[in-house]
Amino acid sequence: MLTVITPQEARKIIFDRFMPLYTPTESVALADALGRSLYDDIVSDEYVPGFNRSTVDGYAVVASDTFGCSESIPAVLELRGEVLMGESARYTLTPGNCVAVSTGGDLPEGADAVVMLERCEVYGERLIGVTSPIAPGNNIIYKGDDVSPGEMVLLKGTCVSPRDIGILAALGRSRINVRPKPTVAVISSGDELVDTQQTPERGQIRDVNAPMLEALIINSGATSINYGIIRDDENALRRIVKKAVGECDAVLLSGGSSAGTRDLTARVVGSEGEILFHGIAMKPGKPTILGAIDGKPFFGLPGHPVAAYFVAELFIRPLIARMMGSETKQRTVTSRISETLSSNHGRAEFVAVVLSDDGASATPIRGKSGLITKLAHSDGYICVPRDSEGVAKGALVTVTYWD
Amino acid sequence: MLTVITPQEARKIIFDRFMPLYTPTESVALADALGRSLYDDIVSDEYVPGFNRSTVDGYAVVASDTFGCSESIPAVLELRGEVLMGESARYTLTPGNCVAVSTGGDLPEGADAVVMLERCEVYGERLIGVTSPIAPGNNIIYKGDDVSPGEMVLLKGTCVSPRDIGILAALGRSRINVRPKPTVAVISSGDELVDTQQTPERGQIRDVNAPMLEALIINSGATSINYGIIRDDENALRRIVKKAVGECDAVLLSGGSSAGTRDLTARVVGSEGEILFHGIAMKPGKPTILGAIDGKPFFGLPGHPVAAYFVAELFIRPLIARMMGSETKQRTVTSRISETLSSNHGRAEFVAVVLSDDGASATPIRGKSGLITKLAHSDGYICVPRDSEGVAKGALVTVTYWD
Predict the structure, then answer these.
(1) Does B305 sit behind a cis peptide bond, omega within 30 degrees of 0 on the bond before it?
(2) Is the pTM of this model over 0.80?
(3) d(C-alpha B288, C-alpha A348), whole Å
(4) Is A84 left (phi over 0), alpha (psi -120 to 50) or beta?
(5) Which of A37, A340, A352, B7 could form a disulfide with A393 if both were Cys (CB 3.0 to 4.6 A apart)?
(6) Which residues of B touch A396 (CB under 8 A)?
(7) Could you tell me if B357 lies within 8 Å of chain A, comparing CB atoms?
(8) Contacts of A378 in chain B (CB under 8 A)
């Protein structure tokens, strides 16, 4: 008997029950940290920038020297030299003087503003005229404006983006502690399944779920091990599940299209571990089993590829993120539905949609469960809540982008 | 003198000028096709599914046998046997008979509907009662419902998603022709730059752009070669640019914070190839150079990390996609800006924003150009068009998600 729970309840059980992996941290070179999950908070131990810098090409001045100047009565300053890029300013500026400085150059002691070249006139080698007054602090980035010592810069669990790589480089972190990637087992079951390479006979179909789930696992930042296709046989199933639980951090078994296999899966999980739920009140994806074996998550996924894919996006991607001490961040857009979707009773319905170029219109993909081509052409999905009256054509819907 | 063009014009020049790489195709295993760009259109040469399948557990019937039946007057049918999973149905159904079939099982010849188990009563080994009439075609997926021979399934240039892997598996494609990854050179220039590993002296800063740009290149599906930091010297610059152009498909040179270096870069590109534009009317990112050397794109990027990052997101990511025969797909959300942004004159302004959890509110990240930590914490960016009056607090804005 299915103990059916809502998608929200299912997610809560997953999050309450399974913890980040506390296996040893992995130290990787900065470049290899891209897409990995930070093991530690990154706290700065430096000032960035490490010195006061000009943000323009111009002349470092004492701002008060320029007060009241204009194009007709420029402030005339004596040029004491130039700050070279990559060197500290060797001058201490005093009133009446200025020093040439490039964008990013070190600001001399005593200077409190930089006048852009465009607002200066050159009267020969040693005399500069400033044609517009400047306020103290203008055109300067101060030491520590970006980061100061002790400042929290990136939180542990952050999935490292190219922008984060930029920060880590700025802080001089050439090696980064990241969480190990979880290893997720993929098993396909069903007497009707054959490998991608094989030509199916009548009654047989190629195994779509294993390659697709492996891609989703890798896409989520984990690694996968494929245990192949097993037949609908309790002993074979039990053997492969035990092996996978022993070797991996999580196990996905897809298939069990037939009622017999579903019962078989439940029996094996129930005896080897514990069933946490059996059935989610959603469409597609209802016949989903979650179990725990040796403290590790076990998912029994529907055999239909579209159903398996929705369950993987909604529950397994977040589970993998959690195992890496991270969280998935959903990207959504508000759009108008182009067709009326009729109501569904008692089950949240997830519908793939194609977005118009500007994202303003979402066309639902119709079709019988299992039509994988239709899914691939979609941009994301919407959820029609359980017990709703459906969604009327033109209504606003929240589309969650895939990936 | 800068010939400043708009971001739209810049993008058009990039797209008109640079073509997909027509180097030989690369054949990869299905699992390795994830994230790669398809070299060919994928046209099905098979039916998916290859046979008529039941979508439920139940009994295959001749639908007309059930017309008029009810719970009180069930239609009584003779059970002829069972279709086993993975085998073709060995029965040809005639009126008055039925055959047991599981979800995904082969539909016997002669059957035109499948009655769910829940709508049947079992009267012993050979007799089944159907308690509710069924229409022809119900609970069946027909041969070719998903794909038929000759049907275009995926377009060349598609960046392969886990869902696409699913389709390719369904069609039996175990090896896939993909476009080669472009190789992009990354060069940093500036006398003030030191490596990530080094502790900068006063006046020096760590090179942020090279690691960040390399991460963005990899994230875009290409590979990168880092040519290190070169000093502001025309001969050194010329040598490294020629080497990079010889070895790579595109070259990025970042730096040139000082006016002298910018001139130097323009001189080298102008003499080794052709300058296509020098300066984009955008903030940040104005001092960007695009050139062509030996027909290959050369980008001179601003030294400020934030400016370099915006130019890379807006122009280099699409360029890499184009070189792979693909297109970047921007993901956007409409949100309300939480603060007034003042107008800017003559330049499109790109502002990074942090989205609220529901995406309804976008808070602009303020700060001087070059503050890389602020950028990393943002979710995406908005564009304040040139010559606009700015954006008033609460106004609707289109946020483009990063990556």
Answers:
(1) no
(2) yes
(3) 50
(4) beta
(5) A340
(6) none
(7) no
(8) 163
**Nearest to B189, CA basis, from B232, B227, B224:** B232
Taking the C-alpha atoms of residue A366 and residue A375, their distance in angstroms, rounded to an integer, is 10
Q: H-type helices in A134-258, by residue range?
A: 162-170, 209-219, 234-247
- B residues 169-208 near A, CB within 8 Å? 169-170, 172-174, 190-193, 196-208
Whole-number Å distance between alpha carbons of A136 and A157? 41
CA–CA dist B269, B248 (Å, integer): 16
Q: In a 3-state reduction of DSSP, which class is residue B284?
A: coil
Q: What is the DSSP code (8-state) at residue B389?
A: -
Which residues 75-134 of B have a C-beta within 8 angstroms of A? 83-89, 102-106, 117
Torsion sign (Cα): A29, A33, A38, A42: positive
Contacts of range A11-14, beta carbons closer than 8 Å, 24 or more positions apart: A11/A314, A11/A315, A11/A318, A13/A276, A13/A277, A13/A290, A14/A290, A14/A297, A14/A315, A14/A318, A14/A319, A14/A322
B29 touches chain A (CB under 8 A): no
**Given an 8 Å threshold on Cβ–Cβ distance, is B258 in contact with A57?**
yes
Q: pLDDT by residue (tens digit) across B246-299?
A: 999 999 999 865 566 677 899 999 999 999 999 999 999 988 999 999 999 999
Which residue ranges in chain A fall short of pLDDT 50? 1
Contacts of A389 (CB under 8 A, 6+ apart): A343
Contact B373 A147 (CB under 8 A): yes
Q: Does A70 touch chain B (CB under 8 A)?
A: no
What residue in B sits closest to A217 (Cα-Cα)? Answer: B162
Token digits of residue A376: 């691939």
Q: Say whether A162 and B212 touch across the interface (CB within 8 A).
A: yes
Min CA distance, B96 vs chain A (Å)?
24
- Residue B13 to residue B7: CA distance in whole angstroms: 10
Is there a contact between B309 and A162 if contact means CB atoms under 8 Å apart? yes
Give residue-wise pLDDT tens across range B165-211.
999 999 999 999 999 999 999 999 999 999 999 999 999 999 999 99
In this predicted complex, what is the ipTM?
0.92
- Residue A115: both structure tokens together: 């006048």
Cβ distance of B303 and A103 shorter than 8 Å: yes
pLDDT in tens, A186-215: 999 999 999 999 999 999 999 999 999 999
